[in-house]
Structures are given as C-alpha cells and as structure tokens.
Amino acid sequence: MDLPLTMNAQQMRETELAVESYNKSLQKSGRTVDGSLGKDQFLRLLVVQLENQDPTNPLDDKEFISQMAQFSSLEQMTEMNRALTAMITDSRVDTSRELLGKHVEVFDRTTGEKRSGLVEEVSFAGETPMISVDGLSYSVDDVIKVSINK
C-alpha cells in the first residue's frame, strides 16, 4: 500500500470533511469527542506510524525516542491521577466518619441557607459521602463548620 506523504488543498479539505462527519456520527451515537489522545489511541497511532513508515526514509531515532518518552509521561500522569483520585476519596470518607455525632453547620444548596444540627448518619453510595443532619442528606462537601458541642 502506497501512502502519499503530502496533500494538496483539495485532499486536505476532503480529509477535514471526513473527520468532521465521523465526529458528528460519534456524537449522534452518544459518544463525545474531546480532541485529546488517550494512552490507547497514542499507542495505536504510534504502531500505525511504524507500520506505514517509508523504508527508504525510516523514522528518526530521536523522534521515536521522543514519542516513547511522551507515552511514558502520559502513562505516569494517568497513574498519578488515579492515585490522587483514590487519596481524595479516602480523605472524604475519613472526614465524613469523623463527623458522626458532631454538631455541624451545612450549606443547603436547594434553599441557599445555612442549616445546623447533629450528624446522625453517614452514607457512601456515590463518589461523595453524604451525611444526614436532622433527617436531611447533605454532601460532606457542604459542611461549613464543625463543633463538638452545640
């Protein structure tokens, strides 16, 4: 298979239209297009680039090393993001457990008012732990003030 290395203006416009059409079809099917490469897409792109390189003009060593370094950095950042997310979740869980039996002041997002009361219950159904104050549920993120006694 012979791949052209350059495009004229007409070919460039046809390619742009094909990409736009494909992106719109993804959006119609409920998928989003964010314009960024994930590690899987990056690795696939690198493999395709290696498979289709011109044997008479192979990929420059420095360029290949640079791309591999970018991939390694992407992998490390992804892992660091995963670890930080887990730490934040653990911190929220610990914070909400410590609130049990304490008097808190919370911001009620539905009314825009501050409410206060004793934390009676903590639940961990979603990403953010919820606390129960006077029978109403609030996100642990809505806590404004904590005190031992009223």
Task: Report what the structure shows.
It is a single chain. By secondary structure, the protein is α+β, with helices and mostly antiparallel strands. The protein has a domain at 98-147: SH3 type barrels (Roll). Helices cover 48% and strands 20% of the residues. The protein contains three helices and five strands; from the N terminus they run αααβββββ. It has helices spanning 9-28, 39-51, 61-99, and strands at residues 103-108, 113-123, 130-133, 136-139, 143-147. Strands 4-3-2-1-5 form a five-stranded antiparallel sheet. Strand 2 and strand 3 (130-133) form a beta hairpin. Helix 2 packs antiparallel against helix 3. The chain is elongated, with a radius of gyration of 26 Å. The mean pLDDT is 80.
List keywords for this structure.
about 150 residues; alpha+beta; SH3 type barrels; 5-stranded antiparallel sheet; elongated
SSE order and pairing:
Layout: H1 9-28, H2 39-51, H3 61-99, E1 103-108, E2 113-123, E3 130-133, E4 136-139, E5 143-147
Antiparallel strand pairs: 1-2, 1-5, 2-3, 3-4
CATH-assigned fold name of the domain at 98-147: SH3 type barrels
The biggest sheet, with number of strands, parallel, antiparallel or mixed sense and barrel status, is: 5 strands, antiparallel
What Rg, in angstroms, do the CA atoms define? Answer: 26 Å
Number of strands: 5
Q: List the helices and strands in order.
A: HHHEEEEE
Strand content: 15-25%
CATH class assignment of the domain at 98-147: Mainly Beta
Total number of helical segments? 3
